[in-house]
Design a protein that fits this description.
Structural class: alpha+beta
Number of domains: 1
CATH architecture: Roll
Largest sheet: 3 strands, antiparallel
Distance between the termini: 25 Å
Shape: elongated
Number of helices: 3
Length: 123
């Protein structure tokens, strides 16, 4: 499912799988792993900020409740060489939906690129 809310996600989701020659740097199945997403962070006092992470470093999104009772979520990131979470971001429930849409778009592109590659995939 492609989202119009984030133009780059829409571009990745719709155009690249069908026209890999237009964006040769994105046509390589390995280069898509460098895709970085941006998102709005928050704290329990209402302050907002900005976060950037490589999409492959998103480890988990957990529900979180602020001390005042507000609903939020924790975005946990993890690098390949790390056993424990590298960073924890507090995000709003609305931002969780946007991040999930972006991850789904990235997964669709990744899947399509793997299907279009000459590599052998063993299940």
């Amino acid at each position: 499912m492609c989202s119009f809310r984030r133009p780059l996600s829409y571009l990745l989701c719709v155009l690249i799988p069908f026209f890999p020659g237009i964006f040769p740097e994105q046509a390589n199945a390995d280069s898509i792993d460098d895709y970085v997403i941006s998102f709005e962070t928050t704290d329990c006092n209402g302050q907002i900020g900005m976060g950037l992470v490589k999409i492959t470093e998103i480890f988990r999104i957990n529900p979180y409740q602020c001390p005042g009772g507000e609903r939020a979520a924790q975005l946990l990131t993890k690098t390949e060489d790390s056993e424990s979470p590298a960073s924890v971001f507090i995000i709003s429930p609305e931002e969780v939906k946007l991040i999930r849409e972006e991850v789904r778009a990235w997964q669709a592109v990744k899947r399509q690129q793997l299907l279009n590659t000459e590599r052998i995939i063993i299940n």
